[in-house]
Design goal:
The complex is a heterodimer of chains A (about 325) and B (about 500). Chain A is mostly helical and about 325 residues long. Helices cover about 75% and strands about 0% of the residues of chain A. Chain A contains 15 helices and two strands. In chain A, a hairpin with a 2-residue loop joins β1 and β2. Chain A is globular and about 55 Å long. Chain B is α/β, with parallel strands linked by helices and about 500 residues long. Chain B has a six-stranded mixed beta sheet, with helices on both faces. In chain B, strands 16-19-20-13-21-22 form a six-stranded mixed beta sheet, sandwiched between helices. The chains are: A mainly alpha (about 325), B alpha/beta (about 500). The interface between A and B is medium-sized, with 28 and 35 residues. Chain A: Pfam families: BPD_transp_2 (PF02653).
Amino acid sequence: MTDNAATINETPARSRFNFGKAFRQYGTVIIFVLLLIVAQEQSDAFLTERNVMNVLRQMSGIGVMAIGMLFVILTRGIDLSVGSIAALGSVSAAVLIQSYPLPVALLMAIGIGAACGLISGALIAFFRLPAFVITLAMMTAARGFALILSNGQPIMPGPAGAPLQAFGTSFSLGFPNPAVLMIGLFALAFIILNYSRFGRLVKAIGSNEEAVRLSGISVPWYVLSVYVISGALAAVAGVLITSRSGVGSASVGAGNELDVIAAVVIGGASLMGGRGGVINTFIGVMILGVIGNIMNLAGVPGYHQQVYLGVIIVVAVLIQNGSTLFRR
Amino acid sequence: MTALIQLENITKSFAGVHALTDVDFDLHAGEVHALVGENGAGKSTLMRVLGGEMRPNAGRTLIEGEEIRLAGPTDAIRRGISVIHQEMALAPDLSVAENIFLGALPQGINWPRLNERARALIERLGFDISPRTQVADLAVAHQQVVEIAKALSRDVKAIVFDEPTAVLASGDAERLLEIIKGLRAEGVGIVYISHRLDEIYKIADRITVMKDGQRVGTVTPASTPVEELIRMMVGRPLSQLFGDKPETAIGEEVLRIDGLTLPNGVRDVSFSIRRGEVVGLGGLVGSGRTEVARAIFGADRISGGTMLLKGAAYSPRSPRHAVKQGVGLVPEDRKSQGVVLDMEIRKNATMAKSGPITRAGFFKPSAERSVVERLIRSLRIKLGSMNDPVSSLSGGNQQKVVLAKWFNADPDLIILDEPTRGVDVGAKTEIYSLIHQLASAGKAVIVISSEHAELFGLCDRVLVMGEGRLRGELQPHEFKEEKLLTLSMTGHRQSGTEGRA
């Protein structure tokens, strides 16, 4: 069940079975299912409702950031600043809640994230500067702003923050609220990427920017937009993390950019742009969450976990690129 | 006397298509042997074989009478053959001396000595360029000097110049010819590829003419007037592929260009085009045709001149602006500019205009499908499903997808740059009839093509460009390849010996 399922159904005439294509299409799902089987074998505690909800809740921040990252990566870009913007979102939400009504404060925090994305995006799209360098700079600067704003201390929003924490720690429809929000955003992203002009052009730009430009489309505006989206969603992720802990902190999201990129890549997106889907990205996020979870349940020490994670990412990408391996 | 280099019966094919058939070519020490022919005649392929970049499918290569098989470019260089390509192969961030001795740098570099040797080589060419300068900071002409010095540093016996003056201003070109004459006097054998016949007459000892991958003949400039040479390049009459041009009513003026000048060398181009007209833009590759098209489409900046579109001032800032104003472009390079290969045919076809099939930025799937179905039918695109990627189609059908995009966008002026490049004969004929269809629907159509027969078969009149200028205009009664080539290469209407000037 990927975005391209419809394509396959409509061309039965020529569907010679193609291993490479199947792996590219369903590799992420296959990995995920294998992982679930392994997890089930490893620990009885894995498939308990409590544990599953925990994984979903833990991954909600990464998941929301991964949506923005997917859009950026589809245009052949990269956004290293998401973790830092999450921190800025977390701190500014905690600060603003104390003096503004809750919805206004949250919107302002998200707006700050979007503004960070706007700055990076404008430099990348209109001044044609490399995304890697610009978002690296934003990564440093946004973290710095978060530290300035919080004075390096965790910020307790006090009674004004209570409703936010209540949201972050309770359930709707049987799921933790942060997870519900993440899934809702994934659904929205699915619709935008597959059915809107914007989504289609974002994918096309990553695939062949010049052809899109020569079709009379203003490419820079689309490139700018994906960084704004990524910035805004990173701030949302920061707010989500704050809603779980009840504390705004400048150390939120440290190093998360790499987890987020890993999730998108495990989800089969190509860093060369143009290739990737929303559902696969969601599964990529879940794979990342489940791997960490299994290792915790199995009592793998934290340092070892990082090594295993590295190996698993490589294996996942190898399977994704099965087509290239088979061709030889 | 044994020739320095002898190529015998060279045949080279790519995917079954013969690029070279049974070609003989020889070069003596101390001569300038010019190689001429239209684009795609096989000159560059032949020189790639000589330079060891390509291995021929058949034929012998002899250097100083000894038969050899070149293992690669390095092998050719070791045997004293250097090829100086149009796009120079210098490392821009390295110094002049480093570039000259690149590939032959000793283990421990003695910089003062290396710089001294570099200076000596450059002085031998009559130039004064500091060996420490970064190549990126040099003018194109000086970069070329560095390329030549690089060849000289390796004890060169033969140098191939592939259109060296195409990138040079005329004063620099003169100096280059002087350098070449100097090298000839030192006994170096020189192959000189150029479209500038006047230069060839100035410098060549012998001229070999190629056409369609075959050698037409080898002549001396003294015994062969320009018009004879051009006749050899053009050759046989061309088959009829073009179908009948329907009578179309010529309507009001769509575009008028006055004194268009571009930063990339196009100067003072003026013409106009009306509804229902198919106007050709001919001339050799690099004559400025594509640049003019891109400027009209807003893809490149213009530095001077004015344009009027449908009577109103028109200065497109971007392709987006041009499309909005009713201009479309089928670009030269289909794969890198025309289509998004990995994307579905359906999505490519609606890319330039999606207003009617979207609501609030979201596609209406059934509306889109019916629009695309209509396009597929009317352009007769052969495909499995509209949801297959464009890459699944043949070249001709890919090109039809690009055309479909513009049929859908429905511009008033459409520019087609090499619309049938890499397209098989059957699809070509279909594309020609689509172009006629556009004209009879009242569009103004500009066709750029290196296939002169195509221009003559399709167009109501042909504008001829050469070296960035509009050299003249041919009416149907003047549709002769000789006329077009003479006009493009020499700027003169009559072919004849005065074309040498």
